[in-house]
Design goal:
elongated, Four Helix Bundle (Hemerythrin (Met), subunit A), mainly alpha, about 190 residues
């Protein structure tokens, strides 16, 4: 079996795993009767992760432009950063232990995609560890703006990279999971 395409290197799902998204394209998801309930909730969680990352970037940019105090920036980063890490870990745990095991066998053509998503979750864990380290480095300088600025600048670059990777993962996950649920129905958990 070929090695799994790495999150950091891929630009989308391999064509062989896109068979169901071709049958159920994104543009029609919300109009499908099977979309309400679980899928809408699940996609709202993905939107929340995207919004939190965007907010942390905006806050960091605002701080670096000297339009946000170290105190407020530190409070925002602590709140949003903690929420982001906690909620993303919980989300992945539910997917890995409850949903994906029930979806993987529904269509053999895409089962390898769940191996890719599992590998993504492990890769994202490493990026989240770096996120926590860098966020803590920023917060440790909260009493000294001059020391905090270069650390926050480095953190902003890391946030942008994390946003790219997480968006790649979430998009691929959506294009695998939503069509399989629309075709076969939501799993009982």
């Amino acid at each position: 079996m070929n090695a799994l395409p790495k999150l950091e290197e891929r630009s989308g799902l391999p064509d062989a795993l896109r068979v169901l998204v071709e049958e159920y394209p994104r543009a029609g998801w919300e109009n499908d009767p099977g979309f309400e309930g679980l899928l809408r909730f699940w996609l709202d969680r993905h939107l929340m992760f995207r919004r939190i990352l965007s907010q942390m970037q905006k806050d960091t940019e605002t701080f670096l432009n000297n339009d946000l105090s170290t105190r407020f920036y530190g409070a925002h980063l602590s709140r949003y950063g903690g929420l982001f890490v906690q909620e993303l870990h919980g989300h992945h745990s539910i997917e890995d232990h409850h949903y994906f095991p029930k979806l993987i066998d529904l269509d053999a053509r895409i089962s390898r995609g769940f191996d890719i998503l599992d590998a993504d979750h492990h890769a994202i864990d490493g990026h989240l560890n770096l996120f926590v380290e860098q966020a803590n480095a920023v917060l440790q300088q909260a009493e000294d703006r001059e020391k905090m600025v270069p650390v926050a600048d480095t953190f902003l670059k890391q946030l942008r990279g994390l946003e790219r990777l997480l968006d790649r993962h979430l998009t691929d996950e959506e294009e695998l999971v939503v069509p399989v649920v629309l075709k076969y129905g939501a799993p009982e958990v």
